[in-house]
Amino acid sequence: MSYKRIEKALKSLETSNKSLFLAQDQGFEHGPYELDGETANPDYIFGIAEKGNVDAFICQKGLAEMYGESYKTNIMLKVNGKVNPKSELGPEGDPHPAVNCSVRKAVDIGAKAIGFTNFVGSAYQKEIMEEFRDIQEEAHDFGLPVASWIYPRGKKVKNPNSGENLAYGARLGQELGADILKMPFNGNTDDFKEQIRMAGKSKVVMSGGPKTNSTKEFLQTVETVNNCGAQGFAIGRNIWQHEDPLSVIKAIRDIQIDNKDVYTALKRLGE
């Protein structure tokens, strides 16, 4: 099969050659403490994705299956995940997320892309990479792009956000066949540019991370990463934990697509 089929599918996950994904897999990965008030209601989050016209909504199988048909938004279905190790319900030791959805099921649900976490550096990375191989190959057989969360994690990993570890992770993701790499920005622009360089044709999107102290601080990061040449962003809490999530999406688009500065974008939020 020609890779042009996947490249065409990737275009459906873009607006003006850039991507903005809304993510809510934090309930699974982190726990209920992330989901205050209405943010625990999947209808509320799907509504933000639809009204905000994001390029895809990232979620686990249960949300996609039970709610996805009611909304006009592309779904990137996350097919593996782990329970928060800091929780009493979480396992000890290096991370090894469970594969909890098949590609066939994702296709039946109507997913437009597949998401999968690779914990590079984990004691279980051999098994994780073998699981990714099966998922990636089957997804491509169905014409679905695959996004990989590339996170250096494990007892051996002393500095998960070092430039060296992140660049190595980007190269691993590219050579494993991920079409999109969801990766952290460690605050160093040279390091992020190196991640993009090591990713080759794989498209790098910045993971949104925890809720920042201010919208201005967050949008400054968006501007910096966009200027590095990133494909885009996969953001959760910094959108749906905000009191005006739709205006935040518009502000991100102002910067990402229209090349407006942070102060102009902030005017949408009355700041």
Topology:
Layout: H1 4-11, E1 19-23, H2 26-29, H3 42-51, E2 56-60, H4 61-67, E3 75-78, E4 80-81, E5 98-99, H5 103-109, E6 113-120, H6 125-141, E7 146-152, H7 163-176, E8 180-183, H8 189-199, E9 203-207, H9 215-228, E10 232-235, H10 237-240, H11 245-256, H12 262-266
Parallel strand pairs: 1-2, 1-10, 2-3, 3-6, 6-7, 7-8, 8-9, 9-10
Antiparallel strand pairs: 4-5
Helix pairs in contact: 7-8, 9-11
What does this structure look like?
- The protein has 271 residues and is an alpha/beta fold.
- Helix 7 runs parallel beside helix 8 (189-199) and helix 9 (215-228) packs parallel to helix 11 (245-256).
- It contains 12 helices and 10 strands.
- The protein has an 8-stranded parallel β-barrel, surrounded by 5 helices.
- It has a single domain, classed as Aldolase class I (TIM Barrel), CATH 3.20.20.70.
- The chain has helices spanning 4-11, 26-29, 42-51, 61-67, 103-109, 125-141, 163-176, 189-199, 215-228, 237-240, 245-256, 262-266; strands spanning 19-23, 56-60, 75-78, 80-81, 98-99, 113-120, 146-152, 180-183, 203-207, 232-235.
